[in-house]
TrEMBL record:
Example of a GO biological process term: sperm capacitation
Name the UniProt record assigns to this protein: EFCB9 protein
One GO cellular component term noted in the UniProt record for this chain: cytoplasm
Species of provenance: Crocuta crocuta (Spotted hyena)
Taxonomic lineage of the native organism: Eukaryota, Metazoa, Chordata, Craniata, Vertebrata
InterPro entries to which the protein is assigned, alphabetical: EF-hand-dom_pair, EFCAB9
Length: 153
């Protein structure tokens, strides 16, 4: 994934240690989110979300919709600022090659994002579906499962 040069996200700074935005950048991001929220209900629907990501990344429609469905935790057809903030941090971490640091620092929210069925398990198919989001190679995935698979499945 590449952020399009000159897009809004290109100018935000992600702390390399904690993989979070500064307070100033969060305030700017909140204002940007409100500009995107044309319906004034503090959410983005799938159309607004698609156009935002299409404008700032090189992702195709299927990838954008996979991410939207992942972030739409309550299946209401829209995402709030919390999910938007998480996505922006993921995008900036990926742009700065901090995916591993991001997953380490935010392991619980990442786990909850990838645990699609709520059974407190993440299978390789989940990682495979989102490999474009976290840049996890097949070899890294095998090593990860070898290290953490406590059930032997």
């Amino acid at each position: 994934m590449k952020l399009k040069e000159g897009s809004f996200l290109w100018y935000l700074y992600l702390d390399k240690l904690y993989c979070l935005l500064s307070v100033r950048n969060v305030k700017i991001l909140v204002e940007y989110f409100h500009l995107l929220d044309v319906h004034r209900n503090n959410t983005l629907n799938d159309v607004l979300f698609y156009h935002f990501l299409h404008h700032v990344t090189n992702w195709k429609r299927p990838q954008i919709m996979i991410v939207f469905n992942m972030l739409d935790w309550n299946a209401m057809g829209e995402i709030g600022f919390d999910q938007f903030y998480m996505l922006v941090c993921i995008l900036l971490a990926q742009q700065n090659h901090l995916e591993e640091q991001f997953i380490f620092r935010h392991s619980r929210p990442v786990f909850e994002l990838l645990d699609l069925d709520g059974q407190l398990r993440i299978g390789p198919e989940n990682f495979h579906m989102y490999n474009f989001l976290f840049n996890i190679s097949k070899q890294e995935l095998k090593e990860l499962y070898h290290d953490f698979d406590i059930t032997g499945d």
